[in-house]
Amino acid sequence: MDQEARIAKELDQLETGAGFLHLAETGLVRVTGAGHRDTLQRVLSQDLRTLVPGGGCLALLLAPKGQFRAIMAVFGGAAETLLMAPPDRAGELAEALRKYLLLSRCISEPVPDNEGATALVGARWAEIAAALGADPGVLTAGGWHSGTFDARSVTWFGRLMLGVPGAVLAGADEAVLEALRAQGVEPVLAQTVELDRIRRGSPAWGAELTETVLPPEVGIDAETVSYSKGCYIGQETIARMKTYGHPTRTLVGVRQLRGEAAPPGLPLPLAPQGEDKACGTLTSWGRHPDYGGVGLGVVRSAHAVAGNRFTGAGREFEVAGFPLW
């Protein structure tokens, strides 16, 4: 089976079942120290006062003027708080937080992870997790808990920082992978998960989420920002946007109508069809086996209308609604 056929099969698998993906690291950062939760409350965009041990939420670290700096899942512990970064971003997240924690003498450090973890994705992920001993109620609420499997300690996290629904299982060994296969769950490619992210319109750190972007421009503020808490870094700009204005840019999904089948160089400036001046940027791209090139872009809000067309680097794109297929 060639890779394109495999991706097509795996996308169908995620629609009706589940799949698993090995992660080189869990992506956890541990924050400790007296009063560290109060410090995080003053720094992050989410209200952490109601975060109980075993609970979880999504939060952002912003610049003083509201631009994106980091996204993370926050998990409450008894004497520590765990933050989950997207793949390969744990060290960057820990470093970004360090300067805010120094004055309070708190510590942020990546959690050593030599064995990696398993991401469980797809429509039946919660059902499969329950079959392996997880608490689906905790996980679907975005929380976490520890447990055992085949006499080995494991930890379940109900957030998957890949832009798709699912869970992360840390401490998984070959016995867990065999149990997943016994449930009809097969491994999936990272490219398949990335296509599912694009289909859903989920922005990713380093692609749509960069240091020039304000969270409302890519539609993540509803889940990551508390508009009722007190001050946090960047709060004034975000609150003003909600109260008095609308984002000047918007996240859109696009389908490629013509041009090369190979991946384009990203970010790719996009201009309205027939014009030369760019009105936005293509930030993510993937090739669907049936629909061809699909992607995400951040464009001027006035141009974010289904059916509008853009050009860039000899390619033509059309705005499409989410999900893209």
Walk me through what this model shows.
With about 325 residues, the protein is α+β, with helices and mostly antiparallel strands. Among the domains are: about 5-25 and about 115-200, 2-Layer Sandwich (Gyrase A, domain 2), CATH 3.30.1360; about 250-325, Elongation Factor Tu (Ef-tu), domain 3, CATH 2.40.30.110. Helix content is about 25%, strand content about 30%. The chain is built from nine helices and 17 strands. It has helices at about 5-15, 35-45, 90-100, 125-130, 135-140, 175-180, 190-200, 220-225, 235-245; strands spanning about 20-25, 30, 55-60, 70-75, 80-85, 105-110, 115-120, 145-150, 150-155, 165-170, 185, 250-260, 270, 280-290, 290-300, 310, 315-320. Strands 8-9-10-7-1-11 form a six-stranded mixed sheet. The chain has a six-stranded antiparallel β-barrel with strand order 12-15-14-13-16-17. A five-stranded antiparallel sheet has the order 3-4-5-2-6. Strand 16 (about 310) and strand 17 form a beta hairpin. Helix 1 (about 5-15) packs across helix 7. The radius of gyration is 20 Å and the shape is flat. The model has no long low-confidence stretch (mean pLDDT about 95).
Gist of the model:
Helix content is 25%, strand content 31%. The protein has helices at 3-16, 36-43, 90-101, 125-131, 136-140, 174-182, 190-200, 221-224, 235-244, and strands at residues 19-23, 28-32, 56-62, 68-76, 81-84, 107-110, 117-121, 144-149, 152-157, 166-170, 186-187, 249-258, 268-272, 280-288, 292-300, 309-312, 315-320.
Supply database-style keywords.
single chain, 325 residues, Elongation Factor Tu (Ef-tu), domain 3, six-stranded antiparallel barrel, 25% helix, 31% strand, flat
